[in-house]
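Continuing the batch. This is chain 6 of the set; chains 1 through 5 are on the previous pages. Same settings as before, nothing changed between runs. Recording input and output for traceability.
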Amino acid sequence: MSRAFAAGALSLSLVIAPATALACTQVYVGSDLTSSGDTIYGRSEDAANRYIKQFGVEQATAGKTYWSGENGPEQDPAVNFTRTSPGATFRYTYVRDLPSDWDDAAKPYSEAGINEKGVTVDSTLTTAVNDAVDGVDPLLDNGIGEYNIADVVLSEASTAREGVQLLGSIIDAQGSQDCNQIWIGDPDEVWNFQQLSGHQWIAIRMDSDVASVNPNMSCLQYEVDINDATTCLHSANLVAVPTEAGTIATFEGGAINVAKSYGLENDGVGQNTRYVQGHKYFGDNLVAGTDYTLNDKGQVESIADPQLFFQPGSSDYTLTNVLRATAARGEGTDVDANANANLYAIGNNRTVESHIFQCREGLDDQLATVQWTALSRGEFSVFVPSYSALLTETDADYYPSVEALEAGTDHVGYESERNDAAKVAANEALAMEDADSKALAFVFMDLNTLAYNHRADTADGVHAYLDALQAEIIEQQDSVDALMQTMQGDDARTDFANKANAVAAGEVYDHAHALLTELRAYLSAGDFSTPFASAGLGAQGKLVDPVTYASEMTQYAQGDEVEGATMYRLYNPNSGEHFYTASASERQDVIAAGWTDEGEGWVAPVESDEPVYRVYNPNGGDHHYTTSLEERDILVSLGWRDEGIGWYSAGHDATPVWREYNPNAKSGAHNFTTSWEEHAGLVKLGWSGEGIAWYAL
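Output for chain 6:
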């Protein structure tokens, strides 16, 4: 990143540490190299630890004017990029910074989205230009840069090629503010677009049989026929500028070597090390001493002929492989950042979000590409899927508004660019989610901070749980995708896309927050004799509580969600009993008697083949609920009063309602909840987990 941070400490650190300041990483794996035949590409973005990102939808407009925001709210065309769209703009998703990160600029920096035409943009991977070329064709303060690229292209381009041509024409006319590489794609093709200097650019259509890993390197070489417009588009003076600068370099056949002509000779040990990590992650058998050299700190000092595209070691990479590539740390190699503290890593503690586009063949433009987004470091995160070309809204619980996120900045507890606020992350009382928010950005910020800074004791356990959760979300997304492809009509597909993202986000949040609660408790206890392991992970490496993402979307597709009765949950502060009822009038009577209203417990079907029986103890004053006729009859024989059927259970593929027993309680000994987090928390406090009581819609 090259953003101008509002925080002075950040600006200073970017100046004094150029070797690692630029630390984003692009990834691409062509369709011939994946087990699914999908094209998978994207990027991890680095800026600073505990940095807040917002995922949302920018609505279509009748037309708009873009400003760069590089100089805060004061806009001046002489120093700020500005453009007015020639007509109406498209709707698109974004991953966006907060206004406070740009001195309260009106429209914060945006990136990583898909528009309603199915065009994807990943903006940006910061690169560099050598001094000689910059002297001939200098970068311009009011040229287009990372602040505006995604907004402009996603607003106006209806195909990837159109996006390339649009961005190129803007650079031709107005110049570039900085040097970047950008993915611009659609279901038919993906382009690697490069801002090379003030007015020079090139875009290369990606082949299906190559992979690419670029950690902010301007020296990565590639050979392309610049005269073949089907595979390469570029500025008019692509060759003339480096020729004038005296830096022109060519391959043996005479084709321009763009990287050597425009880029730096060596981008630094941080970038070099991450290049080797990424290539080794994908099975490129690079050899120390031959393909690269190490310095006395174990960092990669130089690379022999570094390449932008390469042939990896396999041809059946999965979506999971590519998602986890955004957090690679050189594990098990000679550039292992876990074993050598001197090494920078792709998966570092300043990654602020990661996103991957999964483009499938044979589907229409609005369904073809699924966006997978992690709103924190990819290492200890779960990527949430979205049909972003169809998405018209996001759930404010999991993706809060800018105002809500700005209000939670105290929880960031920023210390410095490279030092996490681990004490803040460990303090549940400070967490934003405790203020009626379920922000994914915050729960994963805390998970990453705690696991990263207590790696030896916690990383393996946290990885195991999150890997299982990610695997289950991916597996269920396949089922959800089959449902999506049955949706007929734009409105139905849009509604399904909005609901699917909200349900997936909710499932991921519930599990991640339960894990965070366990992790905080483990660290608070201070006993590290046994490494951290989540109670929510079974012996087979699968989640104890299955994710119900697919089943809920099945119900939604069938309209079952409207055929339900709200179950109200109330609490007696004197006896400790929880009470559950489907009757609104009974609820009001109990509240009037002094009980605390705890809102909706779950939604039960109006009727099913499995009733839930309700019995009352006139001596103890508490209720019990069970689907077991035998248990009901035993309690009645002991003097409990049979109060008939309280409600009904849903099918066993629906949401489980967990049952816990407090062996020390004289009244209110049982609790029932759909929240695995609450269930696991009570078990940790000494309650007996009694499994699934029944199922909710």
